[in-house]
Design goal:
The structure holds 2 protein chains of 2 kinds. By secondary structure, chain A is mainly α. Chain A is 58% helix and 0% strand. Chain A is elongated. The termini of chain A are far apart. By secondary structure, chain B is α/β, with parallel strands linked by helices. Chain B contains 12 helices and 17 strands. Classes of the chains: A mainly alpha, B alpha/beta. The interface between A and B is large, with 43 and 57 residues.
Chain lengths: 128, 532
């Protein structure tokens, strides 16, 4: 699944994120492959295609992007992209990177934690 | 009485051959409200709900797991030229399958329809390609029920309830709107408690409005109507009960409902009357699937209008990035409205109006919706500006069209062996013109407060699903009469947004509740008159 992890990082490249975030995508797809042989075949064939002329993980960043453009829209591409967009942006490490605080109810919401702390604009004048 | 011995499902309160009960199908804004109102009037109700009885403490502050918990994810198919058929072909609508229905998911915006929005055909005249029709009722018919609904829902700025305070996301949209020259700028009329009311606590500004409200500060049928109905001893709530067919006798009156229970077993509940409130896609599907030799095109469908005129509002979103932090996810998600464009002014190049409402998504959903299928470094760099992002939702009236419709897809079957609904939709040119205007207005608001970039976001799977069993004065023009009673079937009612003849610009829940309250009075009168 090293290829899938590298594909995921190329799709949603956040340089500050550790590989563990992108490895979630490979883990998720490994689970899916274990449950469905057709999915397993799609992943295997997709990875083989990307590695046909040299290992994808060893390609330079621009070459990786170019390789993915070549398979955009394929079943394999959509499977990895659709999984990656969920896994990468549901990870707490990504949330911290982009400035999102995650679950709030257990912390008492934001009533005392800055729901209105934006200080570069005033409260808008309101209609009745 | 019910019992919960050994953790087993409670026994049904009413027998399945009890001919006195009214069966309500669906426990959302229409069905949940109607069920409670009937119970309060002393009428016994069996309330069938396809989803589980999740409670607020079960709700999840995490977008994808919450979607798995609450959303209606049963298989559906799509066709037509709308972008949803490309972006989300299996998920045309974002509604809920849980006790409380889509009221567990709504953000709480409660604008009333405007007077002219009940007679759009007369106001606008004929429009090419549109199946416009005036409602058989006007705002004056609904006014007392709007008053009652606002009290029931605890709508801010009504009934002495204070406004919600400005949150970060509203500060951005509100200031931008003021600088552009808009006047109808406020934190809106929201069914969210700013102070404790009606046995429910005040908001703690915890966000996650689309994921179920763990705090119970939002009105929902789950937390407000259904517990009240249960307290009367007249409600028999049956979760995980999926209606399959509404059955009738040789005279054409409905006799009960065939449904699948939690174990997938078919059950049959007799009824004095049946009220269908399954949200517009499933309501049409159920009526169509209830065809028989007497009703060959589907129940209550002599007009051929069941499933047609499907409306989903002209929607879209605008997000913008700024140099400084916004943190749009903090606070009540939709507490902010700009109403100036909710008028009819053909000079703008389209008919009907729209609202702009503050709106946020977490990174997980934003990445999915911002630019569906986008990837690469440019996209990742936009996502890294999440903390400095503001957002708004656009919602306006769409044109009903006869061929925008829900049909049965007999090639695809659900877990009960029933045909799944197919949703076909093409944008009307008026819809496209309105959406383009709304995108430009939204972007101008953010530009006025120095946005570094603005993003036009295509429609999401629809939360507002309307029109598939529309009200009409004449039986040949629609499915139900002015009270939501089927033209063709004397004891069959439709009790959700399906009845809307046209969709107006407003978020529909307040009007669905008002219509349900009005229908409850009508059902009571018919019962007293011996007509049911």
């Amino acid at each position: 699944m090293a290829t899938v992890t590298a594909v995921a990082r190329t799709l949603y490249p956040h340089d500050a994120l550790p590989d563990g975030v992108y490895a979630r995508v490979g883990e998720k797809l490994a689970d899916a492959a274990g449950e469905d042989s057709a999915t397993a075949r799609t992943i295997e064939e997709g990875c083989d295609g990307l590695n046909e002329h040299g290992l994808f993980v060893e390609l330079a960043p621009d070459a990786r992007v170019e390789a993915l453009r070549g398979i955009e829209g394929s079943e394999f591409f959509e499977l990895v992209r659709g999984t990656a967009v969920v896994e990468v942006y549901s990870d707490e490490r990504t949330w911290r990177l982009v400035g999102y605080e995650g679950p709030s109810f257990d912390k008492g919401g934001y009533i005392d934690r800055g729901f209105n702390d934006l200080d570069w604009l005033p409260d808008p004048e309101e209609a009745p | 009485m019910s019992s919960m011995d050994n953790g087993e499902r409670s026994a049904n309160r009413f027998r399945d051959d009890d001919l006195d009960v009214i069966v309500v199908i669906g426990s959302g804004a229409g069905g949940g409200t109607l069920a409670n109102e009937l119970c309060q009037k002393g009428i016994n109700v069996v309330l069938l709900e396809a989803g589980k009885h999740n409670q607020p403490e079960d709700f999840i502050n995490d977008e994808w797991p919450s979607l798995e918990q609450l959303a209606w994810l049963d298989e559906r198919t799509t066709s037509g030229s709308w972008q949803i058929a490309t972006d989300f072909p299996d998920l045309p609508a974002w509604t809920c399958k849980t006790v409380g229905g889509t009221t567990t998911h709504w953000a709480g915006c409660c604008p009333r329809f405007k007077d002219w929005e009940f007679r759009v055909r007369s106001e606008l005249g004929p429009v090419d390609g549109a199946s416009l029709l005036d409602w058989p009722i006007g705002q004056s018919d609904l006014e007392p029920y709007y008053d009652k609904a606002e009290d029931r829902l605890g709508v801010t700025r009504t009934n002495g309830i204070p406004a919600l305070p400005s949150n970060n996301n509203f500060k951005v949209m509100g200031n931008g709107a003021r600088r552009v020259g808009y006047k109808g700028v406020s934190t809106g009329r929201m069914a969210i408690n700013p102070v404790p009311r009606d046995g429910r606590p005040a908001t703690i500004q915890d966000g996650f409005n689309y994921q179920g409200d763990k705090q119970r500060a939002h009105w929902s049928t789950l937390t407000a109507e259904i517990p009240r109905a249960e307290a009367t001893g007249r409600l028999d709530l049956r979760p995980e009960s999926m209606a399959i067919k509404v059955e009738h006798d040789n005279a054409g009156s409905v006799t009960g409902v065939l449904y699948a229970d939690a174990d997938g077993n078919e059950r049959r509940q007799k009824a004095r009357a049946v009220c269908v409130a399954c949200n517009a896609i499933e309501t049409a599907r159920l009526l169509l699937n209830s065809d028989s030799s007497l009703f060959p095109d589907g129940l209550a469908n002599s007009s051929g209008q069941v499933g047609r005129n499907y409306m989903r509002h002209v929607t879209g979103a605008v997000f913008a990035t700024f140099e400084r932090p916004v943190r749009m996810y903090r606070g009540e998600t939709m507490a902010g409205t700009v109403s100036d464009e909710s008028r009819n002014d053909p000079g703008r190049g389209f008919l009907g109006g729209y609202y702009m409402e503050v709106h946020s998504l977490g990174p997980a959903f934003l990445a999915n919706f911002l630019s569906p299928r986008a990837w690469g470094r440019d996209f990742a760099e936009i996502m890294e500006q999440y903390e400095c992002m503001a957002g708004m939702y656009l919602v306006g009236e769409d044109m009903p069209q006869a061929d925008n419709r829900v049909t049965l897809n007999r090639d695809v079957r659900d877990q009960f062996g029933q045909p799944v609904p197919n949703v076909h939709f093409d944008d009307h040119p008026n819809d496209t013109a309105m959406r383009d205007h709304a995108y430009a207005s939204g972007a101008s608001i953010y530009d006025a407060v120095d946005a570094t970039a603005t993003f036009r976001v295509p429609p999401y799977p629809a939360a507002h699903n309307l029109g598939t069993a529309r009200m009409s004065a004449r039986a040949e023009d629609g499915v139900v009469d002015a009270f939501g009673r089927a033209h063709d079937v004397p004891n069959l009612f439709v009790s959700d947004g399906s009845v809307m003849t046209t969709g107006a610009a407003a978020n529909p829940t307040l009007t669905i509740v008002a219509l349900a309250l009005r229908q409850a009075d009508h059902i009571e009168e018919r019962l007293k008159a011996g007509m049911l």
